[in-house]
Amino acid sequence: MPDNITFTLLLAFAVVILGAFAIGTHLNIRKGDRVIKWMRGGLPLVGERATVRWLGSSVAEIKVTKSFAPFRTAEVLFVFEPRDVPVHWLWSRWRGRRDLMIFRAQLDNATRFELEVFDPKGWTTHHTERDVKKKNWTPVPLTAQGLEAYRSGGDNHDAQPLIDLATKAGGKLVRLSVHRTVPNLEVHWLMPDGNQDNANNWFANLKRLAQDIT
Question: What is the pTM of this model?
């Protein structure tokens, strides 16, 4: 009898784990398909073609080929909460992880300065403040609520217009990173719902942002 009970419990546990994995994977793929479908409308502004692939069940990637100026290369990552592994999902959510959209690009021309704008509570920015202070970057005053900024080199460029462009592009901003090394431009936002304005506006603002920093 004890062996039967143990087997039943193990079987029930396996069913729960497999069921949670299937449901979590389905939720992430459904969210990803919706936002990828929305984004395709604006991709012709950035490049001739784009390839889409899933990197596991929590990350989807759009890689643009033959990018147009001012971009030399460009890619978009959709990083979802690990809903397929309940324990990991609960732990990461408690630490602040949320669905993110990330844009990365190498630019045709070098940037005039380096800049980090970030939400210190973002799960991808936990070490950003420590890193810029270690490099002795200069703090930049901001009017944006909940964001901090540091810069290095170049003229005293106002960061606020760049933040405004990045926010118009993707929604709630988590990180705006400008570097002379690749990627020259990286922007993180909380995941949009896919029901917002035409994706052309999203990429148009990113192009303006890239032009402003070079």
Answer: 0.88
